Structures are given as C-alpha cells and as structure tokens.
Amino acid sequence: MIIDSHAHMSMYKFDNTFPYLALDENGRCIRTDGDRELVIARMKESGITRVIEPAITCRSNQDVLDLAAKYPGLIYPAVGVHPRYVYGDIRITKAQTEKTKWSDRNRVKSWSAGKNVVAIGETGLDYHYRWDPRFKRAQKKWFRYQIRLAEKRDLPLILHIRDADEDAIRILTRYRKKLRGGVVHCFCGDADTAGKYLELGLHLGIGGALLQDEERSAPLREAVKAAPLERILIETDAPYVLPCKDRFEADVRRKNLRNSPLLLPLVIREIAAIKGLAPEDVERAVYENTVRLFRLERSST
C-alpha cells in the first residue's frame, strides 16, 4: 500500500484530457493520456490508496475540500496558503486571478476546522526568485500565522521551503514548542540541512528530485542515506517535478506533461537502492510513517 504525501489532483492542470506519466510493466516511465478520473482509477489499481492534497492559493482551499468530499477515503485535504501566493495577483487559471489579502487568514482558519482536514499547508518560505522585500516579510507573517494555526488545530505542517532554509529553520526553532509535527515537502537539501529539520521533529518528503540525474541529486542522496527511514515520506508533487529524461521508456515530449502519483514505486525503489533495503520494506515503512504523521486510519487490505 502506498500513500502520496503531497499531490495536487484538484488543480486545473488535471481538468479535461492531458498527457501524464505512469509506469509500464517493466517499471519504466511512459507517457500516456487520460483525465483525472482515469488517473485516480489507475492509482487504485496500482495500490496507491491515498493522497494528501494541500492547498496552494487561498481560493484553492475550497477546490481541495470539494475533491476530498468527492473521493472520501482517497483524498485527504490540507488547508493553507503557499508562500508564493500570499502577496499580489495570483494566477489560478489563464482567465482568472485572485489577490490574497491578510484578512484571508480568517477564511483559512474557518476551512481548517473541517473534520477531515489532516494538516496545515502548504506553508513556508520561498526565496527562489528575487522577490520584493515586502513579499518576504509577507511570507514570514503568513508562515508564523499558519504555524500558530496548526498548533490551535493540533495538526502537522506541510512545509514548502525553497532556497530559504536558514530563515525557515530559525522561525521553526523559535516556534518549536508549537509544532505538532510536519513534513518538509520536496526536500532537496544535503544531509546537514536534513539533520536540522529532523532535529525539530519533522519528516522529509522525498519525491521527483531524487529521480533527477545523479550529479544534481548527489546531496539529496546523501541526505536520504543518512536520514532514519522512519522519518521519510514519499511524494510526487503531481503535476510537477518530473524525473530526468533517462528514466523514460523512450524519448518523451515534456511539454504540458503532468507527473502523477503512479510514479511512486519508482521513488520507493530509489530510496531502497540508496539505503540498501528491499523495496517492500521501504514501502511498508513510509506507509506507516504517513499514517502516523497525518493520523490516518490503517487500511484493512
């Protein structure tokens, strides 16, 4: 049994028919076409039993909750606002924008009271682009608020930290007593950085970054090797974070291609190879880790 600890199946990129990645009978990435319902059906057939789905924009919280209501027991919602979307005009679709205001925190607070919500996020800091300094201040303000909200709701955090580890670790350390666990989603750092998050009681979300070329992913591989297996979760961040081209069964056009939870067995095998373990042992461990962190019911099958 496999749980995707981070995917965005409610996004507009999964509307209508689209090209997406799956695995063939030999475990190689292939391109195929389908819609959201078909991908979800294939997930069930492949033993991918659940998906943790965090919100991104403020408005997307309702989309996440609606999809979770449509697929109970499969989609588990997390509510929050992504750090890139806490300030300014935010594009949701090609024809739609929203402006996130500080007062929108009250909407997030209301959504977080839902009985099926399993986490707050994704939240954190993102310094990848040369943001206006006011944007960084807004990110920190929202981050601190969502940490306090997670404490209030007794929920773990789903953390998006990109090129901002120093500030993120400083804030998390300051609020350490308020933390109720969490996962550093799409972790891409080295063993030293991983150790600082682990020391705070957090988990590492490992996904597509591990499937990049070995030179690029070398620091992450060392982090995975050093990290205790009981503190690792697996994810795809679908539709994002595609593996490198040499993972594909054949040369595949990447334009408009979506990642999917169907690639999780590939992540499991990679972790197993790095740690010198059997894939089934890794699968079992990361399943238990995810159930424990998000307080999910254990599957009876």
3D structure, described in words:
- This protein is α/β, with parallel strands linked by helices.
- Helices cover 36% and strands 20% of the residues.
- The strands form three sheets. The chain has an eight-stranded parallel sheet, sandwiched between helices. The chain has a two-stranded antiparallel ribbon with strand order 2-3.
- α4 links the parallel β8 and β9 (157-162).
- The longest helix has 21 residues, at 133-153.
- The N and C termini lie close together (8 Å).
- Residues 89-96 have low confidence and may be disordered.
Which percent range describes the beta-strand content? Answer: 15-25%
Q: Please tally the helical runs, counting DSSP H or I stretches of 4 or more residues.
A: 9
**Terminal CA distance:** 8 Å
Alpha carbon gyration radius? 18 Å
Describe the global form.
Answer: globular
Helix content: 25-40%
Count of extended strands: 12
Strand neighbour order, sheet with most strands: 1-4-5-8-9-10-11-12
